[in-house]
User: What shape does this take?
Amino acid sequence: MNCFVDQPDERTLSLTPVTGETLDAWLTDAPAPAAAWVGAQDFKAKAETLLLYPGADGNPAGALIGVDGADDIWSWSKAAKALPAGRYSIASGPVSVDAERVCFGWALGGYSYDRYKTRDTEPRELVWPEDVDRKLVDARVSGVCLTRDLVNTPASDMGPGELASAASALAREFGGSCEVTVGDDLLRDNFPMIHAVGRASTRHPRLIDLAWGEADAPKVTLVGKGVCFDSGGLDLKPSGGMLLMKKDMGGAAQVLGLARMIMSYGLPIQLRVLIPAVENSVSGDAFRPLDVLNTRKGLTVEIGNTDAEGRLVLGDALALASEEQPELLLDFATLTGAARVALGTELPAMFANSDGLADALLEGGLAESDPVWRMPLHAAYDRMLDSKVADINNAPRSGYGGAITAALFLKRFVPDEIPWAHIDLMSWNLADKPGRPEGGESQASRGAFEMLRRRYGG
Assistant: This one.
């Protein structure tokens, strides 16, 4: 990561973390010119604020960084973007900080998606703190950045084929493998729902199957919704609802980013990543409302709405994942607007068939400032999926409980004995925040990585 350096130079400025409660202690011990300057600025040391202060010669000598305690990430993101170009180091002060969180926040503060835009910015470099786990910082940052880059890429350059290429490149980088089943071969290999959803597009649907790790290690499988653009199909979305649909492959981006964290850090697991990659388009070959689709699991599905396509492609992928009985199974998807209505855009909904797995995901998310909120797999709502002509309907007519019924639909494809969690997320920031620019976002993946790290070591 080019935002870090090993050694300070003669121009390196020190950054001192402070809070409103500890600022007076810093002022008491600071050199007189710096203390006088800071005192005159009415600096309150609130989180996500900073103040450069001069030395005896009048030139900048350092900066105070207002933080929200030792675990703050985002104040360091703000500093990385707001400070003048140059080299900086963390100074000891009245607030102890977690150096790995500081480095993570600093790196994300410098993130920008610039594939199509020329940027000429000088770097803000941070001297690596002593004893920081650089491999851990790199794993987290590179995973988040991969997810963001994938989601931010417009659908013209991120269709099913390009998504498969990104997965293949990731597998090659870490010595894994990646197999891709394309087009009518999906029917040959019994993935009828993935084929049905993607067949209307000129960009052929496919199933991406990435594998990495030792054969005797615990099996962990990740499934990500890879709808590279969602028009809604024949139940066409209005233009406003279609505007952000390049992000409908956000679940796929999350699992590839999480896979990068796992492989980069070297967690001792047998990893499998499954991504049904499709474009939900309109053509004479599009699947229709009230069609009945076969599935890999053997269930039949009546189509109540072609815009509820994500759960269809995930169903085939979850059925495949379940066949080898993984120790853990996680899926990520930009699945329902109902989850956003319930929890907003920044808090993913998490459903799980295992209390232990749910608790571990909650704890990992809180530890990494990457929270999820558990929602119920309310069994009484299962009847809302009933169909008069098939085993199950993909879109209940009731407008209530949409996130729950979508999760219950997916649950039909996972045996009860496999610990499974489904995460329904936005994968997008609607506005700029420090370290979290407007656009594609990594959500719940850092928390999931921390859960896996605690469970499997490293």
The mean pLDDT is 96. The domain at 137-456 is CATH 3.40.630.10 (Aminopeptidase).
